[in-house]
Amino acid sequence: MRKTILLLAFAIIIGSCNSKKTKIGEPENFITVSILPQKTFVEKIAGNDFVVNVLIPPGTSPAAYTLLPSQLEEISKSVIWFRIGYIGFEHSWKDKIEQANANMKVVDLSEGLDLITQGTMQHGGHIHPVGVDPHIWLSPILVKQMSKRILDELSALNPGQSAKYKTNYLEFVKEIDQLNLEISNKLKPFEGRKIIVFHPSLSYFVRDYGLLQFSLESGGKEPTPQRMAELIDLAKNEKIKVIYIQGELDRDHAKVFAEEVDGKIIQVRPLDPAWAENLMEMANIIVDNF
To answer: What is the pTM of this model?
Structure first.
């Protein structure tokens, strides 16, 4: 009898463990995002209610990343994909990602935002922006707008937790506003100052805080000798001794530039998941190097 009771207890424990494992792995618990900062935004609002699958891993370039077969399986479990909008990876892989899960909702977080573009074109009766700068997550102002969209979608997915999500969202908005205020106060004395970057990833950041960005690279192409010469002259005239670059990008051209202006290369991390801390650190680095 005692042996039977022990066996039943063991079976209940095993069954409970298996039930928990199944629950964690249920498709409705999976959300896909494109980049690491988006994972931060989702978790700020939803906590641990969802497993967040990030398509572009740390240390890789969103412009050129190739999706792995194992990631297609993770996509197949997701109920929603939060796109960032205009990074090259999303455009190259959009069809295959959607084919991997025809039932997955696709939400473009760039919709309705004040985007930095090179102009517009008309196609099929609609006007579309062209040459869109994709780095919208580096603007606290835009992140606050994106977070509202995330809140609405998460609340629709899990209505029973909508009150919790609203509370978390409002707390995140307070954090964003405080961050924006601190960065504004820090950079206000430097409005109109110029910075030079290799890749134009700080466009929205400098727009928010009144700085001017000049990049060696344009449209994902290597800088031309003419562009290199122009920015070397600019740096010498403005006494700019720094070029900012992302860690995953090739540094050869940046090294040439730094040598020509007797300056240095400083790494920035636009895709750092510690979003608020990273933006504050970028502001501090920029101020320290003016």
So the answer is: 0.86
